[in-house]
Amino acid sequence: MIVITGATGSIGRAADAHRAVIDLAARAGVAQVVAVSVRGATPGAKLGGGMHGEVDAHLRKSGVPWSILQPTRFMQNLPRDVQDGRFYGSYGPKEVNYIDARDIAEVAAALLTGPVGPGGDHVLTGPESLSHDRIAGEIGAALGRTVRYVDLPVPEMTAHLERQGVPQPHAGDLAALMAETGDGRWATTTTAVEDLTGRPPRPLSAFLADHKDAFPEALKAI
Ligand SMILES: NC(=O)c1ccc[n+]([C@@H]2O[C@H](COP(=O)([O-])OP(=O)(O)OC[C@H]3O[C@@H](n4cnc5c(N)ncnc54)[C@H](OP(=O)(O)O)[C@@H]3O)[C@@H](O)[C@H]2O)c1
Known about the structure:
Blueprint (H helix, E strand, L loop, with lengths): L1 E2 L7 H18 L4 E4 L11 H13 L5 E6 L1 E2 L3 H4 E2 L2 E4 L6 E4 L1 H13 L6 E5 L4 E2 L1 H12 L4 E4 L2 H10 L6 H16 L6 H6 L6 H8 L5 H4 L2
Parallel strand pairs: 1-2, 2-3, 3-8, 4-7, 6-10
Antiparallel strand pairs: 5-6, 7-9
Helix pairs in contact: 1-2, 5-9, 6-7
Bound molecules: NADP nicotinamide-adenine-dinucleotide phosphate.
NADP nicotinamide-adenine-dinucleotide phosphate binds next to α2 and β4.
Organism: Nonomuraea cypriaca
Protein name: NAD(P)H-binding protein
InterPro entries: Ergot_Alk_Oxidoreductase, NAD(P)-bd_dom, NAD(P)-bd_dom_sf
């Protein structure tokens, strides 16, 4: 069984819902649970990291054979992050890792279709960690347009997110999380995708080549 849902809405209610599903799986004698979590998940962490931290802890002691996938940010977020040729964030100049969600799916498929192993946590990363200046440059090159990364202090990024309709406290937590992940903690890469699927994770260039059409019309019209 795979457990993957959104981490939006009430974090407490989401954790309860995940725990209930895991308890049902234990009672039903499910052969294994593969859960999609997030890198750095720990109880009390901001946004989804805290919810996943609680759920991961529950799964580890559930008695069901388990694997926990802890991916970095999804490349699939990028189309919605870029508006009008600008990519706003609070990551600063350091490198951050992004992974193509298709690689996470392939890891899950490999674990779910292979023999049930001893379980464990798998930190899943893309093959390279890049600064947001570089990411914006690669997006621009793929689209044939200028895309610029605009780094904002956390309070200004919070206000930017609020203007886009992100409610508090999520807007503030999201901006603060950007600053946290931009401190280098998400810069290292792992070999987990290749170890588990037999092939290396997709680079940003492959994601962009396959997803040019996912970027908003506003960007293409510049
Ligand atoms: N995005 C990232 O960068 C990132 C990075 C690391 C980890 N993660 C984790 O990966 C997971 C997916 O993230 P995401 O960004 O793809 O989330 P998302 O865009 O919010 O998508 C979540 C998906 O889960 C479905 N869903 C939500 N609640 C559900 C429920 N109770 N039962 C069945 N389906 C439900 C949603 O269906 P509807 O569309 O029908 O609502 C949607 O298809 C989350 O747990 C997140 O914490 C995300």
